[in-house]
Design goal:
heterodimer; A: 112 residues; mainly beta; 0% helix; globular; B: 112 residues; six-stranded mixed sheet; five-stranded antiparallel sheet
C-alpha cells in the first residue's frame, strides 16, 4: 500500500511569493495533519483536518491556510512568504485512535 | 505553555543499551509518543504511553511516569541503523491524537 505522498519534494521561492503544498493520505485515513519542521527542531503542529473540517490550528499566522478535499487529500497554502518560512513541511495521516501518525517525506521549502 | 526537554545528543556503541529521557511540562497531559527520524526521512512512530509503566515493542521500550512528568525510550541491542533523531511528543487532552507537541529531538549516534 502507498504511504503518505507529498508534492513537490523540493521548491524554492522568493520573499512575498505564495506556495501550495499537496498531500495524499494513506488510503482509508480520513484525518490529515500538517507540521512544520525547521532544521534541528522537532515538527511543529500547523493544522489538522478531519472529514474536510478543520479540527485544530497551531500557533501560526493567518498567512497559513489549508483545506481538505472530498477524497481526503489536502493542500497547505502559505502567502507572503518570509525567510523564516524555510522549513520541511510534513503531512501526516491517521486512522484514528492513539497518537500514531503516519508522516510523508515532506516538502522542503526554501525562501530566498 | 508547554515544554519538552530531551538531550540533544547521545552516543553509544553497537550492541549496547541506550536510554533517551524526556521531561515535559504541559496542562492537560494525555499521552507521550516517540518518533524516529533518519536524516532526510519522514518521522516514524515507535511507541505511545498513556498510562504509567513500560511498553515493550521488540528492541524498543518506552516508559512513562505521569506523576514525575517524565518518560524515556530504551533501545536495546543497538544497531548501526538506529543512528537517527528521536523525538518525544505530547498529546494533550484538549487536543486530538493528531495534534502533537514535539520536543527538539535527540540525535543518536551508534558507533561500530
Amino acid at each position: 500500500d502507498a504511504g503518505v505522498t507529498q508534492s513537490p519534494t523540493h521548491l524554492i521561492k522568493t520573499r512575498g511569493q505564495q506556495v501550495t503544498l499537496r498531500c495524499s493520505p494513506i488510503s482509508g485515513h480520513k484525518s490529515v495533519s500538517w507540521y512544520q519542521q525547521v532544521l534541528g527542531q522537532g515538527p511543529q503542529f500547523i493544522f489538522q483536518y478531519y472529514e474536510k473540517e478543520e479540527r485544530g490550528r497551531g500557533n501560526f499566522p493567518d498567512r497559513f491556510s489549508a483545506r481538505q478535499f472530498p477524497n481526503y487529500s489536502s493542500e497547505l497554502n502559505v502567502n507572503a512568504l518570509l525567510l523564516g518560512d524555510s522549513a520541511l513541511y510534513l503531512c501526516a495521516s491517521s486512522p484514528g485512535g492513539t497518537g500514531e501518525l503516519f508522516f510523508g517525506e515532506g516538502s522542503r521549502l526554501t525562501v530566498l | 505553555g508547554q515544554s519538552l526537554e530531551q538531550p540533544s545528543e547521545v552516543t553509544a556503541v553497537e550492541g549496547a543499551i541506550v536510554q533517551i529521557n524526556c521531561t515535559y511540562q504541559t496542562s492537560g497531559f494525555y499521552g507521550l509518543s516517540w518518533y524516529q527520524q533518519h536524516d532526510g526521512g519522514a518521522p516514524t512512530f515507535l511507541s505511545y504511553n498513556a498510562l504509567d509503566g513500560l511498553e515493550e515493542t521488540g528492541r524498543f521500550s518506552s516508559f512513562l511516569s505521569r506523576s514525575d512528568s517524565y518518560g524515556y525510550l530504551l533501545l536495546q541491542e543497538l544497531q548501526m541503523k538506529d543512528s537517527a533523531s528521536y523525538f518525544c511528543a505530547v498529546r494533550r487532552s484538549s487536543g486530538s491524537a493528531r495534534q502533537l507537541t514535539f520536543g527538539s529531538g535527540t540525535q543518536l549516534t551508534v558507533l561500530p
